[in-house]
Backbone:
């Protein structure tokens, strides 16, 4: 059996993320650290909502275009 080489090492990426977060939050109080992560969560949720809105807008646009084409075909 041939050994597989990993294209993505989740453990190494997790360690990098932990180190980066530790540097960002170094010297912060507990309250500052919580505020830091709250801002990140709000930003992530906002960006997800924007993506959803864009996707919905595209779908509605395609739907309207299809209806318009059907009207012209009648």
Residues:
């Amino acid at each position: 059996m041939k050994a597989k080489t990993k294209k993505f090492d989740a453990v190494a990426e997790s360690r990098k993320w932990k180190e980066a977060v530790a540097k960002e939050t170094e010297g912060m109080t507990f309250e500052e650290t919580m505020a830091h992560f709250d801002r990140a969560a709000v930003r992530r949720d906002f960006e997800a909502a924007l993506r959803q809105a864009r996707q919905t807008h595209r779908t509605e646009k395609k739907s309207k275009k299809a209806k318009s084409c059907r009207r012209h075909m009648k």
In short: Residues 26 and 58 are 43 Å apart (CA to CA). The mean pLDDT is 83. Helices lie at 10-25, 30-73. The longest helix spans residues 30-73.
